[in-house]
Specification:
Blueprint lengths: L1 H16 L9 E5 L2 E5 L1 H4 L2 H8 L8 H11 L5 H13 L2
Antiparallel strand pairs: 1-2
Length: about 90
């Protein structure tokens, strides 16, 4: 599981390297009926939040859970907040 997490993070880092024009510096991301504008480096964490919510990180070790918390905590998006709640509830 841990190797999978790091592959996802590396893919997200590669996506951040893509040069965006000034008009594309913020992209709109849809979540349910709520449209939220997030910078690309934050929007890249939405799939990870969905994976957490889907149970793909259930039973993750302390280091992986800590990395997920660090990556998700500053993102103001409903899916990220729910993922944080789930991770915190599972913490020992």
């Amino acid at each position: 599981m841990e190797g999978y997490f790091f592959r996802v993070v590396e893919q997200n880092k590669e996506a951040e390297k893509v040069q965006l024009s000034s008009s594309e510096s913020v992209r709109s991301v849809r979540s349910g009926d709520n449209a939220t504008s997030l910078p690309p480096n934050q929007a890249a964490w939405l799939p990870v939040a969905r994976q957490v919510l889907g149970g793909e990180f259930d039973g993750a070790d302390k280091s992986t859970a800590g990395s997920l918390l660090t990556g998700l905590r500053s993102i103001n998006h409903p899916a990220c907040r729910r993922a944080l709640d789930k991770l915190r509830a599972a913490a020992p």
